[in-house]
Specification:
- The strands form three sheets. A four-stranded antiparallel β-sheet has the order 2-3-7-6, covered by helices on one side. It has a three-stranded mixed β-sheet with strand order 1-4-5.
- The radius of gyration is 21 Å and the shape is globular.
- By secondary structure, the chain is α+β, with helices and mostly antiparallel strands.
- A hairpin with a 2-residue loop joins strand 8 and strand 9.
- The mean pLDDT is 94.
- It contains ten helices and nine strands.
């Protein structure tokens, strides 16, 4: 293979990390919090916030400095995602999907591909995501039907992808296809391409969602889409399954961090409300029933944070971390749902109002149990890897 599976991870000292996170906090309070409800309710793309994220370098957060990125370790990156998601989870999805695409290029691409594409990704000049899911292929990636046929110095691609984040507002995607439809096992016939928009690459309908609003999720159609052969990541056919799933480690850490943010955000909303709302002559936080809920919510949020940082530390150390990432993604996403639901109960009837932030937390949290591999699949991955690491 012509690819490398390593990336440069720099050390971020505590003072630098603190300053970075404080800057994120100021931006959230000044720019994000005042507009969240409007963008969520109107399902409106946050163009101004995206430009600000470009200026802050978030689209290059985990891309190495030699390519113009910040080169942040996953542990620092996860803390950024947690903070943003505690206010508005959907916003972090814009740069997470983009960075998963970039990770595939940086870890597995040729030197020429990295030099050409990564600086554009890091600056946000070109933004995108992962083109994996199809109408009949989600968790089972080997069931994809999109094909790429070699034609001289190009490939001709036909097929459909769905639920693609950044599919409308992005400029390119890392596109998973079948280059050999007869391969056995099936994963050996899969390849991953850097696919910029152009003739034959059509954006279909924008998909309406329960939550995760304002962030475009789209159907993409490829009809005799011609792509140069040098856009094949790594330059070798048959490696796409490993390239795509390798990037999912970072994606699952991100989803776990988003779950932490939601769990902590819901806890903060419930805590504030419980101290202001009074029944029977005292704040409801003094009632034992509410205290039991808050105690459980604090514990879930803290455990989710620690599990996510543990997975991020393994990723930064260059270790195989599908088990750690799976544990973190599973637990943190379930914590997000449970904390959001409990926070709604704390809010009582007001939780059902669109004028309160907690209903958005609940709607957004449900996605975390599905995205980047369902939680059912995470448990299977964790069990298999646990058994592999503990032979009799």
């Amino acid at each position: 293979m012509n690819a490398t599976t390593t990336r440069a991870v720099r050390t971020v000292d505590p003072d630098e990390e603190r300053a970075l996170l404080e800057g994120i906090d100021r931006w959230i309070e000044r720019e994000v919090r005042p507009v969240v409800m409007h963008h969520d309710h109107e399902d409106l793309w946050p163009a101004e916030l995206v430009e600000q994220m470009k200026e802050m370098g978030l689209f290059g957060a985990t891309i190495s400095q030699e390519y113009g990125g910040l080169g942040l370790p996953a542990s620092t990156y996860a803390k950024i995602v947690m903070r943003i998601s505690a206010c508005w989870m959907a916003l972090s999805g814009i740069f997470n999907s983009h960075l998963m695409m970039a990770a595939a290029v940086e870890r597995f691409g040729t030197e020429a591909q990295k030099s050409l594409w990564l600086p554009k990704f890091a600056s946000g000049e070109m933004r995108g995501g992962l083109g994996l899911t199809e109408p009949n292929a989600g968790t089972d990636l080997q069931a994809i039907r999109t094909t790429a046929v070699r034609d001289g110095d190009h490939y001709v691609i036909n097929g459909t992808k769905t639920w693609i984040t950044n599919g409308i507002q992005g400029h390119c995607i890392a596109l998973l296809v079948k280059t050999d439809t007869h391969a056995d096992p099936r994963y050996k016939g899969m390849s991953l391409f850097i696919a910029p928009k152009g003739p034959g690459f059509t954006v279909g309908k924008k998909l309406k969602k329960l939550g995760y609003n304002a962030i475009d999720s789209a159907e993409l159609v490829f009809d005799n889409y011609r792509i140069p052969a040098d856009h094949l990541i790594g330059g070798e056919e048959g490696q796409g399954f490993f390239h795509a799933t390798g990037g999912l480690e970072l994606g699952r850490i991100n989803v776990a961090a988003r779950g932490v943010g939601l769990a902590e955000g819901a806890l903060a909303l419930a805590t504030s409300y419980a101290q202001l709302r009074e029944t029977m002559g005292k704040p409801i936080c003094q009632h034992q029933a509410i205290q039991l809920k808050l105690g459980e919510m604090v514990t879930r949020a803290r455990a989710a944070r620690l599990l996510t940082l543990d997975a991020a530390a393994s990723y930064d150390a260059g270790q195989r971390c599908d088990m750690e990432a799976g544990i973190a993604k599973y637990f943190a996403s379930e914590a997000a749902v449970r904390n959001s639901e409990e926070a709604m109960r704390v809010h009582g009837g007001y939780a059902y109002s669109k004028e309160y932030d907690i209903e958005r937390c609940y709607r957004d949290s449900l996605l975390m149990c599905i995205g980047e591999g369902t939680n059912e699949m995470q448990r299977i991955i964790v069990a298999k890897e646990w058994v592999r690491r503990n032979p009799v």
